[in-house]
Structure formats: structure tokens, C-alpha cells
Amino acid sequence: MENGEIPENANENCPGTQSELAGKSDACQGCPNQEACASAPKGPDPDLVAIAERMATVKHKILILSGKGGVGKSTFSAQLSFALASMDFQVGLLDIDICGPSIPKMLGLEGQDIHQSNLGWSPVYVESNLGVMSIGFMLPNPDEAVIWRGPRKNGLIKQFLKDVYWGELDFLVVDAPPGTSDEHISIVQFLQATGIDGAIIVTTPQQVSLIDVRKEVSFCKKVGVEVLGVVENMSGLCQPLTDFRFMKLTETGEQQDVTEKVLEYMREKAPEMLGLIASSEVFDSSGGGAAPMCREMGVPFLGKVPLDPQLCKAAEEGRSCFADQNCGVSAPALKNIIEKLLAAKQWN
Q1: Which residues belong to the annotated binding site for [4Fe-4S] cluster?
Q2: Exposure of 185 by Cβ count < 10 A (0-12 exposed, 13-18 middle, 19+ buried)?
Q3: Could you give the CA distance from residue 334 to residue 339 in angstroms, rounded to a whole number?
Q4: Where along this sequence does the record place binding of [4Fe-4S] cluster (predicted)?
């Protein structure tokens, strides 16, 4: 409504949270929100104007979300940014996971500092066309916990949006924390007027993750953010057979490494096996994984990325999985997903 949203537990005939009569009208008497509404600032947020001016040079904004933590959302954000930059797009990666900022490590930028100019805060650059901003650059000690309540987190997100000078960007990738909490509401509220292209939701195949992904899809629908697609990450452990270690269980229950014997046997007796990829289900996907859920909820399914130890290593070392042939299992899967994303929408 014109005067702001009405709280769910508000009295009848509530004037709205942004009305000049909020907390003061006769309808507000006895309302549990009366004191908060009366003392809250009214009218449009002046910082939204500054954010809109900053975002005017950013063509596209993509949120990377997950219902549950530990599903590889930040790894996907990092590799998506690397991939877009390798396509000669101007890319910014904004890390708003205030309590768990892992983007600096995944981009190989640990220990870097933020610099300020007359134009604002300068991102830390991996390449000339890939800039990064994170609270991780602001912590004096990387082991220091960020113990902040919602308003302080929201204040920093707002500061990132209005004070960071990105310059001309084709894509701003926003790596959000898991869930649907303050940070998510804030980033949508701050960016909505400037246009959010949509959100990519990352999950793992098992139901315990998909249950929370459904909530994430519901959140996007409620706040008017298009779901660009869902990525099923860690979709089975895949790696070359020769990368495995082979163990033999002894009578005493100990594990004996017989890798060299097995490899030597294959070289002599079955050399064609040396080029095989071995796959094993890590998470229970008996429910079908993310694809059936996407069909049920009417959102695109972008594809699956296997659990590839080489991709994990690339993330640990802060490098692109596309830079060499090491990530021979995961890189093609990620490439297909990114190509599908770019083909599905007009990114002018």
C-alpha cells in the first residue's frame, strides 16, 4: 500500500508503517507495534537514491542463494564470476555473507585490503575485469568472529551498495548467506528499485537440503525476484579412477594401501580401465534430486555439478576451475550450466 506494509499483527484500519500517522492514530491504540511505528523514520530512505546512482552503471544483478549452508554456494559464485570474466564481461562479486565470508579465499585474495578514493571504496581486483568486495577484507584477524545483530549487518550491506565504486559492470554477482534472513530481505529491498535480474539457487541432491530450497523459492516468489534456475551441486562423487586410493581391510580392521598394486594390475591386464571416470552417490538422491522439485515448483533446473575433489582444490587455492584441465569432471558441467543461463535470458 502507499503508506508502507501493514504488520501481520496490526490493528484493524492500520495506517501503514510509513504513514505520518503511524503509531499516532486512534487505530494504533493498543497495537503491539505502536511504539516501534511511532519512533521509526518515515518516508523514503535517502540512501536508496545513492544506491540507485551507484547501480546505474551495473547492467545485470544476480543473487546466488541457498536454503542450507555447506552446499557449495560460494564455490559456485566464485566459479560463475571467473567464467563470466573469462568471456570478457566486466564482473563484480559482492560477498554479503557477513558472518562467514569465504569469497576472499576462493578468489585468491586473502590478506588484501580495501582502498578508498574520492569515488568511494575500491573493490579488490583478481583481474582487470573481475572485482571483489567482502567484509573479509575488513577484518584485522581472519579468525575473528563477526558477532553482529541484523541492523548492523544491514547497515554494512547498504554501505557496500552505496559506497563501492564498481565502475561499468556487465554483471554484479551477489553471494548471499544461506537461508532467508535479514541479509536477503535487505539486499532485495535495497536493489529492487534498480532491478534484480534474478536468483540462482544452489542445493545438494538430498531431501534435507531440498526442503530448505523450497523455502528459498517461496521467498523469491514472495519478494518478486525471478528464479533463474536451480543448480544441483555435489551430485555424486566423480573423479578419474586413477585418482582413487584403493584400500584393503586387514583382519585386525586396519586399512592397508594397495593403490600401486591395483594400478599396476590395471596397466598390465586392463589398460582400458585407466581412462574411466568413477562415480559414487554421496548424498541420498532416491527422491530424484532437484529436477523433480523444479518441475513441481515451476522453476528452471540448470543442471548438476558433481562433487569433484579437483574443484574443491581449485576453491581452496583461489583459482578458476576453467584455467587448466585439472577439473576435467566439474568444469564441463559448470560450463554447460553457465551457457544455459546465458542462453535463457536476454542479457543486453
Answers
A1: 14, 28, 31, 37
A2: middle
A3: 9
A4: 14, 28, 31, 37
Which H or E run includes 105?
helix 103-106
Query: Residue 3's pLDDT is what?
Result: 43
Binding-site residue set for ATP = 67-74
Check residue 43 and give its pLDDT: 63
How far apart are the C-alpha atoms of 201 and 203, rounded to whole Å? 7
For 210-229, write each residue's pLDDT tens digit: 999 999 999 999 999 999 99
Looking at residue 169, its amino acid is: L
The length of the chain is 348
Nearest to 327 by CA among 315, 338, 339: 315
Q: Report how far residue 62's alpha carbon sits from residue 304's, in angstroms, rounded to the nearest whole number.
A: 19
Residue 195 CA to residue 198 CA, distance in Å, equals: 9
Annotated binding site: 14, 28, 31, 37, 67-74
Tell me the per-residue pLDDT of 126-142, one tens digit each, with 9 for 90 and over.
999 999 999 999 988 88
Pairing of strands 130-134, 169-175: unpaired
**pTM of the prediction?**
0.86
Interacting residues of 339 by C-beta distance below 8 A, sequence separation 6+: none
Q: State the greatest distance between any 2 C-alpha atoms of the chain, in Å, as a whole number.
A: 89
**212, 279, 290, 293 from 296: Cα distances, Å:** 15, 28, 10, 5
Residue 16: what residue type?
A: G
Phi, psi of 116 (to 5 degrees): -115, 140
